């Protein structure tokens, strides 16, 4: 079975920050959402899986590879798009991709050329392949980032906060590209944007302060709140009082009024109505309870 299995992974930085605390996750082929607020430990986890930094304890296996003991084996099957992905602005997409392919060890000219062309088609940059990367939009750069991450035909693709700064059209295009890759690859998408996970992922985990709060199928996770989530429209001035009185997991303005979502095992009182949970509610209730 081709799965990424993370067991009891822990990491404390020298400054005392416990970035990973006994993390265990099972990640199958498909799109996996790693959802958590800034500082949750997502990048630390990604970098540890990518063997760019060491853990204090725990293990990671991918199929038959013991990742932490065999970093070179992992690198052969890993594609990684880090949060800060720099490109050489003066080079064209085609030239840089070709160059990166050489660095990845694809030395046969014909094979490399075919691969570069195929990837440029796949990420929808073929038409602009001769243009300089410096002139690319954020979304185009991210798609280029995916092309370079796919050069070795990876079994595991990791993308760290990839949709930050993309407009809705580009974000959608990027989602489609990732979904396609996720049909036969393990794809881990780290994000603090709930919509990214909702749209894309068949499995997910919510992490915060280095701990896994919940993991599983997003729909099932949402069902866990079934029968316990209530909504009410209140006056703006009442918000502080409601925050004190109830387990309030979200509040948003709607036509000048405030809509609050409250978690409660019993009916909270007049004016509240029972609602279906969305992933945002799950996320907020987990972060709130942690
Ligand atoms: P995320 O990717 O979810 O935003 P990170 O993994 O970047 O989270 O960070 C997790 C925690 O570890 C944060 O509190 C962060 O400040 C801290 N941290 C990250 N990298 C380092 C480092 N190199 N040295 C010390 N603390 C770090």
UniProtKB/TrEMBL annotation:
GO terms for molecular function: ATP binding; ATP hydrolysis activity. It comes from the Bacteria. SUPFAM superfamilies: P-loop containing nucleoside triphosphate hydrolases. InterPro entries: AAA+_ATPase, ABC_transporter-like_ATP-bd, ABC_transporter-like_CS, P-loop_NTPase. CDD domains: ABC_drug_resistance_like. PROSITE patterns: ABC_TRANSPORTER_1, ABC_TRANSPORTER_2. Gene3D superfamilies: P-loop containing nucleotide triphosphate hydrolases. SMART domains: AAA. The keyword Signal does not apply. Keywords: ATP-binding, Nucleotide-binding, Transport. Residues 4-234 form the ABC transporter domain. Belongs to the ABC transporter superfamily. This is ABC transporter ATP-binding protein. It comes from Pedobacter alluvionis.
């Amino acid at each position: 079975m081709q799965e990424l299995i993370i067991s009891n992974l822990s990491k404390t930085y020298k400054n005392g920050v416990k970035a990973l605390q006994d993390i265990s996750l099972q990640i199958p082929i498909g799109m996996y959402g790693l959802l958590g607020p800034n500082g949750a430990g997502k990048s630390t986890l990604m970098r540890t899986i990518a063997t760019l930094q060491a853990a204090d304890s725990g293990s990671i296996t991918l199929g038959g590879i013991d990742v932490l003991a065999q970093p070179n084996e992992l690198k052969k099957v890993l594609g990684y798009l880090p949060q800060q992905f720099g490109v050489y602005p003066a080079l064209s997409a085609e030239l840089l991709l070709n160059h990166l392919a050489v660095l990845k060890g694809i030395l046969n000219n014909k094979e490399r050329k075919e691969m570069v062309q195929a990837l440029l088609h796949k990420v929808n940059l073929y038409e602009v392949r001769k243009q300089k990367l410096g002139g690319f939009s954020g979304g185009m750069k991210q798609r280029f980032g995916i092309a370079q991450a796919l050069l070795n035909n990876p079994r595991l693709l990791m993308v760290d906060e990839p949709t930050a700064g993309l407009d809705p059209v580009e974000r959608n295009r990027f989602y489609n590209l990732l979904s396609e890759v996720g049909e036969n690859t393990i794809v881990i998408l780290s994000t603090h944007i709930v919509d990214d996970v909702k749209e894309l992922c068949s499995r997910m985990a919510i992490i915060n302060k280095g701990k896994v709060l919940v993991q599983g199928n997003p729909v099932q996770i949402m069902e866990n709140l079934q029968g316990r989530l209530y909504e009410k429209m209140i006056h703006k001035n009442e918000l502080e009082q409601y925050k004190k009185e109830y387990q309030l997991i979200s509040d948003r303005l709607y036509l000048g009024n405030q809509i609050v979502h409250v978690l409660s095992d019993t009916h909270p009182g007049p004016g509240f109505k029972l609602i279906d949970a969305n992933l945002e509610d799950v996320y907020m209730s987990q972060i709130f309870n942690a």
